């Protein structure tokens, strides 16, 4: 019997939240230094090799469960009040989310934070490049 070829994939799951923030390190005359809000969309990506028995990398429900506590912490909040987000840029928010998800999702490959429909940040972890998993 011929051995099945491994299937490598990336799964992506979105979660959304509404939040207010200001960027205290921005120049005083910059619009983002003032209090404002966004309808954030965060895309969580995991990658690796599909389990040949189950036919999946990870259950999407497992990703949703890992995201739930973070969504509760962020939704309808003032981000500057959350420890670690005193300067809540999209870049720092992506890293903050990564640090909290990586223990629960070891195949985490990227976090994308979109603060508007045209502006987003992709974070690939502390190595700064897409991760190779499994």
Shape: elongated
What's the CATH class label?
Answer: Alpha Beta
Largest sheet, if any?
5 strands, mixed
The CATH superfamily turns out to be 6-pyruvoyl tetrahydropterin synthase/QueD
CATH architecture: 2-Layer Sandwich
Strand content: 25-35%
Please give the share of residues in helix.
10-25%
Which segments are poorly predicted (pLDDT under 50) over 5 or more consecutive residues?
none
Describe the protein.
The chain has a single domain, classed as Tetrahydropterin Synthase, Chain A, CATH 3.30.479.10. It is 20% helix and 31% strand. It has a 5-stranded mixed beta sheet with strand order 3-1-2-4-5. The longest helix is centred in the middle third of the chain and has 15 residues, at 60-74. It is built from 2 helices and 5 strands; from the N terminus they run E-E-H-E-H-E-E.
Note the topology.
Layout lengths: L7 E14 L14 E14 L10 H15 L2 E2 L11 H12 L6 E7 L5 E4 L11
Parallel strand pairs: 1-3
Antiparallel strand pairs: 1-2, 2-4, 4-5
Give a brief rundown of this model.
The protein has 134 residues and is of the alpha+beta class. The protein has a single domain, classed as 2-Layer Sandwich (Tetrahydropterin Synthase, Chain A), CATH 3.30.479.
Task: Name the descriptors.
single chain, 134 residues, alpha+beta, Tetrahydropterin Synthase, Chain A, five-stranded mixed β-sheet, elongated
